[in-house]
Design brief:
By secondary structure, the protein is mainly α. The protein has a domain of 110 residues. Helices cover 78% and strands 0% of the residues. The protein has five helices and no strands. α2 packs across α3 and α3 runs antiparallel to α4. It is rod-shaped, with a radius of gyration of 48 Å.
Length: 193
């Protein structure tokens, strides 16, 4: 976040706290507020906050105007002053609504900033793991290449070697060994030489 935004966020939150209020109102009053909300595209909560703030502004204006009307000012000046005070109070109620929205957005922004920081950490960890996996892959490829070369060398050496001499002298060909084993059992000639 930039320093300007951080300063503005702190300024908006200075002295601001949120309170949840639960109250009973007439269904007719509620429906009037919802009708007003629908025509302005407000959510239910936003509409109730705006109606509350405007009602508060109206009551404050009435109190201010009643003080002014009791003074000894000319009627024309009183009318101008009444108009200006009403405009001021309307703007004040709009400001209160916008300040609340800015406060909520600031809170949402903080949550998003924390989530972003967590995701950035996960991304860095994933990049580190990927680097380790690639290093392991390269090491395995090198080891496989070395083993293939060793295998080739061993095959070449094996191909050039002569068969080793037998230890028990010359063995009869395999057919004769097989026959010599079978024939004595059947009672036939002991040797076919």
């Amino acid at each position: 976040m930039s320093d300007d935004w951080e300063h503005e966020r702190k300024r908006l939150q200075e002295g601001v706290s949120v309170r949840t209020a639960q109250l009973e109102i007439l269904e007719e009053t509620y429906q009037s507020a919802m009708s007003l909300a629908e025509s302005n595209g407000w959510s239910e909560a936003e509409a109730l906050r705006i109606v509350f703030a405007n009602g508060l502004a109206f009551l404050a204006a009435e109190a201010s105007l009643s003080k002014i009307q009791r003074s000894d000012m000319p009627q024309e000046a009183l009318e101008d002053l009444n108009r200006v005070v009403r405009q001021l109070l309307e703007e004040s109620s709009r400001y209160a609504s916008l300040k609340f929205k800015a406060y909520r957005m600031s809170q949402d922004n903080q949550v998003l900033s924390m989530r972003e920081a967590g995701l950035r950490g996960e991304l860095e960890l994933a990049k580190h793991r990927l680097t380790l996996f690639r290093q392991d892959e390269e090491a395995l490829k090198q080891r496989l290449s070395a083993l293939e070369q060793e295998n080739t060398v061993l095959r070449q050496r094996l191909a050039t070697l002569e068969p080793a001499p037998s230890q028990g002298g010359d063995l009869p060909p395999p057919r004769r060994v097989w026959l010599s084993r079978l024939l004595p059992r059947r009672g036939r000639v002991k040797s076919l030489k």
